[in-house]
Amino acid sequence: MERKQYLSKVRRLVVKIGTRLILRAEQPVDLDFLDGLGRQVARLRERDIQTVLVVSGAVALGRRALGLSGRVDQVGLRQAAAAVGQPELMHLYLEALAAHGLRAAQILLTADDMADRSRYLRIRNTVEALLAERVVPVINENDSVSVEGVTFGENDRLAAIVAAKTHADALIFLSDEPGLHTADPKQHPDAELIGLVRPGEGLSHFGGEAGGAESRGGMRKKIEAARMATECGIPVVMAEGTVENVLLRLLDGEPLGTLFLPGEPLAGRKLWIATAREPAGRVVVDEGACRALTSPDGASLLPIGVVEVEGRFAAGDIVEVLGPDRRSLARGIANYSSEELRKIKRLHSREVPRLLGRPGAPEVIHRDNMVVSLEPR
Question: Which domains does the chain have, with CATH numbers?
Answer without folding.
Answer: 2-270 (3.40.1160.10), 279-372 (2.30.130.10)
